TrEMBL record:
InterPro entries with a match to the protein in the record: Gly_zipper_2TM_dom
Signal peptide range in chain numbering: 1-29
GO CC, alphabetical: outer membrane
Record's protein name: 3-hydroxyisobutyrate dehydrogenase
Domain Glycine zipper 2TM stretches: 25-60
Length: 63
């Protein structure tokens, strides 16, 4: 794994940790945004869509 690959892994791991620790809308949006960005290869629409979807999931899980 090169340097950029390690940095990406750490960012995703950090976002996942944030979601687990907070368990709310903000954590879900962070994880969803990172996942959307990675799945759509940096697309802005994918990032925003992932953040919205993650925020909704986080909100529903925190009820």
């Amino acid at each position: 794994m090169n340097r950029l690959g390690r940095l990406r892994f750490l960012c995703v791991a950090g976002a996942a940790t944030l979601a687990l620790l907070t368990g709310c809308t903000l954590g879900g949006a962070a994880v969803g945004g990172v996942a959307g960005n990675r799945l759509t290869h940096g697309s802005t629409l994918g990032t925003v869509g992932g953040a919205v979807a993650g925020g909704v999931v986080g909100y529903e899980l925190s009820k």
